[in-house]
Design a protein that fits this description.
The chain is of the alpha+beta class. The protein has 3 helices and 4 strands, in the order ααββββα.
């Protein structure tokens, strides 16, 4: 079964089973499904969130990939892009799943308007 990269068919609360049943999703979904397969086979693996650097873009979007413990080392598996070298990956957080690595999480009490804006700028050093 294939799971092409398709935006807006899932959300941060979508489970691996739900995105697999939908047969589509984004990097977060691909990573969750991959981790589920590994954990079913008792292979240690972790969820990584961060950014994928692209020197053709002026901005970066949040991104997710997996790391798998094999033969005493952590190996990168970017399922969405079929990349296995973390040369363009900017690490922000490592955990069991998205909830462990969410960029912003907390509790808000009271009413009123709020707005959050963030920007990530990265340039490659020569």
């Amino acid at each position: 079964m294939k799971m092409p990269f398709v935006k807006d068919v899932t959300h941060v609360g979508t489970t691996a089973a739900e995105s697999f049943a939908t047969s589509a999703g984004v990097c977060q979904d691909h990573t969750h499904v991959f981790l589920g397969c590994l954990r079913d086979q008792h292979i240690p693996a972790r969820y990584v969130s961060g950014y994928l650097y692209d020197d053709t873009e002026n901005h970066m979007a949040s991104y997710a990939w997996a790391e798998v413990w094999l033969d005493g080392y952590w190996y990168t598996f970017d399922i969405s892009n079929q990349l296995f070298q973390p040369s363009s990956h900017v690490y922000v957080a490592i955990g069991r799943d998205y909830l462990d690595t969410a960029p912003v999480r907390g509790v808000r009490m009271g009413g009123g308007y709020e707005n959050l804006y963030s920007q990530v700028l990265v340039s490659r050093l020569s």
